[in-house]
Amino acid sequence: MAAEDAAGAQQKFVDEAVAKAKEMYEKISETVRGALNSDQTEKVTDSILDTVSDFVKKLLPDEAHAKIDEVRKQVDDALGQ
User: Fold this and answer.
1) What is the dihedral angle through the alpha carbons of 8, 9, 13, 14, rounded to the nearest 10 degrees?
2) Which pLDDT belongs to residue 40?
3) How far from 65 is each of 39, 72, 78, CA to CA, in Å?
C-alpha cells in the first residue's frame, strides 16, 4: 500500500511538472512570436533589405533593378510569415 501511495505521489509530481512546463513553453512561445512579428523587427529587416538591395543596385546595371526589387519583396514576404 505504501509503495502504491509513493508511486501515485510520484506520478502526480510528474504530471504537475509536465503541466507547468507546458504552461511556461506556451508563455515563452507567445513572447518569442510577438517579438518576431513586432514593428521594431519589421523596421530592422526592412532597413537591412533596403541596404543590401541598394548596394547590389550600385553593382549591377539599371536593367537588373526591377529583378532586385522583386527578389527583395520575396525575401521580405518570406520573413514576414
Assistant:
1) -30
2) 81
3) 27, 10, 20
Domain borders along the chain are 1-36, 38-81
- Between CA 40 and CA 73 the distance in angstroms is 18
Query: How much is the pTM?
Result: 0.56
Distance CA 76, CA 81 (A): 9
Residue pair 49/75 in contact by the 8 Å Cβ criterion: yes
What is the mean predicted confidence (pLDDT) over 47-55? 92
Candidate ranges 9-18, 28-37, 57-66; pick with highest mean pLDDT: 57-66
Given a contact cutoff of 8 angstroms between Cβ atoms, the answer to whether 53 and 76 are in contact is: no
